[in-house]
Prior knowledge:
The chain is of the alpha/beta class. The chain folds into 2 domains: 6-190, 3-Layer(aba) Sandwich (Rossmann fold), CATH 3.40.50.620; 212-329, 3-Layer(aba) Sandwich (Rossmann fold). Helix content is 28%, strand content 25%. It is globular, with a radius of gyration of 21 Å.
Amino acid sequence: MPDGIDILVVGEAGASGAIRTVAWEVLTAARVIADATGGKVHGLLMGQGIEEVAGAWGSAGADHLLVADHQRYAGLLPSIAAATVMQSIAEINPAVLLVPGTTAGRDFAPLVAARLDAGLAADCVELAMEGGRLSALRPVLGGRALSRVHFGEGQLAIITIRPGSFAKAEPGATEPVARSLEIPTSDDDARVSLVETMPKGTGVSRLDSAEIVVSGGRGLQKPEQFVLIEELADALGAAVGATRAVVDAGWRPHHEQIGQTGRTISPRLYVAVGISGAVQHNVGMQGADHIVAINRDPDAPIFKLASFGIVGDLFEVLPALTTEIRKAKV
């Protein structure tokens, strides 16, 4: 891969207009490549009502900024997102395209790759330049192993970034030249339209942006016992999470599931209650800065990841812990 390559980074804003956490991380990933090759970073932010936040996001690492602000981007449907990204690629001719590993990003990135016959590496956690070639590291086999992907010369490299894999870039690092992007108007791109959106839940904080998460597993024994998790989360100002076993049993909604087939998060503090620590769950939360495990089994695998462990009956530990936290906050 030659020096001075162009890198296109796709950002993403939520329905409220706030930039998703992983969009800041993708800018950090882009600077890894740009700083190693002397290249330029081009940011592309798509959404509705994003004019105010676009500049701040672009200043966290982009040299140039494209802004696609239109009601057609509500929900970031794959067809319109893919068309916009391809239009940007045609203008910039980048060697690398970095996309957030969100639900939307996982939908439109393969579309772009297929239409352009480009290489795609999904869910990557590390990027590096090796002998002039770009390589990406990604978990495989449910996180049991890591695979390093190398991209060929002259081939557009499309990479989705797993949330929590890179540090969050901070605004003010660059002063990008911003311009509005013409919105694609093809009827083919508008075959699917967004009719309605419904909130996933009413928790204190979304899992993908929460700094503290309290999760429960089958150790809670029955769904009504999840109130203990909710009370501790309320005391900590945390979001509530769950394991796949709990979700499959119908105890909690799917949007709370953390793990290989759920959400990948990287909070400052993760509290695992009654969770054994199966690898499928661990891959979704092992990026947390600090992990506290509460389990009565001293040999539970979760303790191998934990920064702090409490071996005890969760039905005794949680009420006492919640009470003490509330006292401390008075």
